[in-house]
Here is the input.
Amino acid sequence: MLFTAAAASLALSNALAQESDRSRPNIVFILADDLGYGEVGCYGQQKIRTPNIDHLAASGVRFTQHYTGAPVCAPARCVLMTGKHLAHAEIRGNRDSGNGRVFPGQWPITPEAFTIAEALKASGYATGAFGKWGLGPSNTTGSPIKQGFDRFYGYNCQRNAHSYYPFFLDSNEKEVPINKGLIYGHQQKPNGEVSADDYRLKNYAPDMILGEALKFIDQHKSEPFFLYLPFVEPHVSIQSPQDWIDQYPKDWDTEKGAYRGQNGYLPHPRPRAAYASMISDLDEHVGEVLERLERHGLTGNTLVVFTSDNGTTHPGQDPNFHIGGADPEFFNSTAGLRGWKGSVYEGGIRIPCIMKWPGKIAAGTTSDLPSYFPDWFPTLCDAAKAPLDSGIAAGLDGINLLPAAMGNQEIDRKEPLIWEFAGYGGQVAVRDGRWKAVRQEVRSKKPKAWELYDLNADLAESRDVAAEYPEIVERLAAAHLQSRTPEPDFPQPLFD
Here is the structure.
């Protein structure tokens, strides 16, 4: 009798758990790499074709004032994964781990870091990451496998990701060769013909990463899963597939001609067409992920997020090109915003952001709520019904974006948005409502004064009004200092 009762209780518990699993959405989080605010059609792009991303926006909500956690790769990913803004985060700039190998990986997050993946895994989600990690090599505490992911495939090290034809990719905590040799991502060709085929091998890493991600969906279609897709495109080097390049006009590149690697990364004979192709290829991969969800009948119960890790790449020594041969002016990649990748001005940190969740989020809507990467931790946990320890929850810096995504435009954010970036001379930015304060060169011997911009009246940040509103500057500067914690691995002598 006791056995029967226990068995009946277990069966009921399992049935409730299965029903609960069916009601909990799958989560697919797609992170582009260096994709500018204006580089997709639904954000105003006129030249580059992005039909799948545009369709995603038409099927959900498009955030018009969404920000990354940092203006470069590794700290942006740290803020995203841990829900702590850049004055709290463990990683506040790009920094190598110092392991001494060719591609060792970046400075690792610690065992104390608690990631979105850990929270969702503890709540019963299968977790997989496919793409670029950048938060610590496999033999450190920063490995994705040690930070909540059941499966990882892609580039552990950001510098390995400078080539789309690497010798190896990382599969869980092993390096798996994918090509015979490698195309090193930093070469020049000062003279002679530039040929794209000189910088190609058999296996194109983005396609292999996509293939493993689709396998993950196939394998976990019957249980709730968290699929993190930090795709590498359109980060330079420019090495896009030729079939996409051939679809863009040849006359785009007659004005400036071939890029010879003079601003870093690899040469290319048709840099404008090839850069557009990288974004279209990324768009195609987004479409394949959405198609695989549809094939398994998962679309209706999957929350899909699409965004970018920071703005488009910045200028180089040769003024004809940006880094890697990109041409953001030609594509209006920032949609008129000031600054580029590496900057806390709008062009460096404001990014496209789309959420789709059928039946929960109305199609074809927009939200003007200022939001940023720390918000994703509480948002995804709320969607997944994943309970958080009170101590973990108290340490998060973001808010739940689901009410805004579902149409509530009156969200109360009690704290301003804060960035404390250790790179590019050291920069701080604080946004509260219409006001945004910026301070440059904070790690130099002569830190610059605070600047202040009224984004409602001056989205291009062209008129510094700090002298007119000193009380607002003082309030925002104080908010930064009150919120920050020192981080010895990324010191800021001016504030520590």
About this structure: The two ends are 66 Å apart (CA to CA).
